[in-house]
Amino acid sequence: MFTDIAIIFVETSLIFLSATALALMAVGAVRAGLGLGRAAVALCALAASLALWATAMGPLAKAGILMPPSTLMDPPFALMPLIGGAVILWSLGKLTITGRTVLSGLDQRHLMGFQVFRVMGAFFLIGWATGDIPWEFALPAGVGDVLAGLAAMQALRALSKNAPDARAKVIRANVVGLADFAVAVGTGILTTEGFMHLLSLDAPNIINMYPLALFPAFIVPVFIAFHLFSLDALRRDKPVQVPA
C-alpha cells in the first residue's frame, strides 16, 4: 500500500518541481530581457534534460544500481546523480551566458519560494508511521525537510516585507536546508544495505529503492542547485561595508 502511494507522490513531485523550475526560469528570462528565441531554446533544452534525467533514474533504481556500494571499492553510484546532478545544474546556471542571464532576472524571493516545497519531505514521516521507513532516517530527514521549508517561508516573508533581517533569514534558510541534506544523506547511507549499513539492521531503509530513490537521484539535486543559486546571489548582492 505504501509503495503505491509513494509512486504517485514521487512521480507527481517530479512533474510539479520540474514544471515549477521551468516556470521560474521563464520568469527570469523575461525579467532579464532575454530574447524570445534564446529563451525558448534554453527552456526547451532544460525541459528535455530534466525529462531525460528523471526518466533514466527510474530504471536504474528498479535495477538496484542506485543502492549504496557493497564494499569500499565499489563505485558510489547512489551519490553520482545526487552530486553530479546538482553540479551540472549549477554549471548550466553559472558557467553559460544564457544561464547567467536567466538567473540575473531572478531574486531571492523566487529562489526561496522554491525551497518552500521542501516540506514535502514530511512524506518520510508517513513512511515511518506505516513501518516502511526506519525512524533513524525518517525522523531526521522528515523533520529536517519541514524545518527547511519553514525557514524558507520565513525568509520569503521577510523578503516580501523588505525586513531588515531578510538577508539573515535567507542565509539561515540555506544553512538549514543544506545541513538537512547532509544529515539525510548520512542517515540514508547508514540505514541502507551496503558496506556502511550500521543502523536499522533488521529493517533496512528503502530510500535508495524505487520509487523513493528518485528523491536523492533527482529531487534533492534540484533543491541543492537552487541553494547554490541563492548563495551566489547573496555573494553578488553583498552589502557594501562603510568604514567607521
Mean pLDDT: 94
State the share of residues found in helices, binned by percent.
55-70%
Fraction of residues in β-strands: under 5%
Separation, N- and C-terminal Cα atoms: 64 Å
Instruction: Count the DSSP helices.
Output: 9
* Category by helix and strand content: mainly alpha
What does this protein structure show overall?
The chain has nine helices and no strands. It is mainly α and about 240 residues long. Helix 5 runs antiparallel to helix 9 (about 215-235). The longest helix has 30 residues, at about 1-30. The radius of gyration is 19 Å and the shape is globular. Residues about 240-244 have low confidence and may be disordered.
Blueprint (SSEs and pairs):
Elements: H1 2-31, H2 36-62, H3 80-94, H4 97-104, H5 108-115, H6 123-129, H7 135-160, H8 166-191, H9 214-236
Transmembrane segments: 6-27, 39-57, 77-99, 111-131, 137-159, 171-190, 210-229
Keywords: Membrane, Transmembrane, Transmembrane helix
Relevant terms:
disordered C terminus; transmembrane; 244 residues; mainly alpha
Overview in brief:
This protein is 70% helix and 0% strand. It is built from 9 helices and no strands. Helix 1 crosses helix 4 (97-104).
